[in-house]
Amino acid sequence: MTGTRGADTAQLMEMLSASLAAYYGDFTAAAASENLTASQAKTLNVLRRGPAAMRVLAAILTCDASNMTGIVDRLEKRGLVQREPSPTDRRVKNVVITTEGERVIDVIRGKMHTTRAGLDRLDDEERSTLYALLERAFMQQPATA
Amino acid sequence: MTGTRGADTAQLMEMLSASLAAYYGDFTAAAASENLTASQAKTLNVLRRGPAAMRVLAAILTCDASNMTGIVDRLEKRGLVQREPSPTDRRVKNVVITTEGERVIDVIRGKMHTTRAGLDRLDDEERSTLYALLERAFMQQPATA
DNA sequence: TATTGTTATACTCTATAACTATA
DNA sequence: TATAGTTATAGAGTATAACAATA
Prior knowledge:
Two copies of one chain form a homodimer.
Chain A: H1 9-33, H2 38-47, E1 52-53, H3 54-60, H4 65-77, E2 81-85, E3 93-97, H5 99-110, H6 113-120, H7 124-138
Antiparallel strand pairs in A: 1-3, 2-3
The first copy, chain A, binds a DNA duplex through helix 2 and helix 4.
């Protein structure tokens, strides 16, 4: 665990790439099993924590605002989210997840068996270490939060 | 680094999700700066290590074989890859990266400033640890390699 | 004037099904 | 029969530009 092998930047980026691809594949498959695309599931995942304006959603999903219209349209058509007018700014529409939407995203999370099995191979201390290292490397960008 | 905070599965999966978004956003932006989509750049990245048949590429990129036709078409039209007939099986076409393709994917890798800066925050031992943990968690799936 | 959300447009990615040429 | 690659098709994601309503 303290060796130097496999620690140069190129190899680490390859490992990150492969790991994140595995995670993303697991997420996409779980979403597909509920007939949702990855973008739709990601949107539900964000809304799971609370309502957000269209513009805010687009910023979080790093896509153009015009894309959110279609994504939210499809989620709304399936009754997984709802558009509500903002009380404070009549230009803004807040998107709210429905009870059914919460149910579906929770099911998807529960279906990420590959990721869960992988994380289960780590003990508590290793999981804390992994969390801390990812946080250091990815969550402290100067102006990307 | 040995604390227990932030180590439960749900939080760790959130951190993975956020890390993925940061990494993928960095990669996508770098690819876009060279007028390539993420799928096109990912294909070049795979071919950087050697030729591969259409079918094999599709398996690695986890998409249907029919998708590769279009992706490789566009890369070929820009002179970044070439289709070559397999000497051993006349059904198979091997896709080979060109010198220009190698140049472009190397440029893209070099432009992943956010990811590189993040990894630079870790010292050698931390990088080795991160590599080992990711390998344990994601690279030892029973039948997904 | 600037901003929010939408529409229109064009391109890319994606899976499914059907096709061809091989094996 | 089965497999490799392609084509046709349709749905979804994506960015750009232009627009109406609101700030």
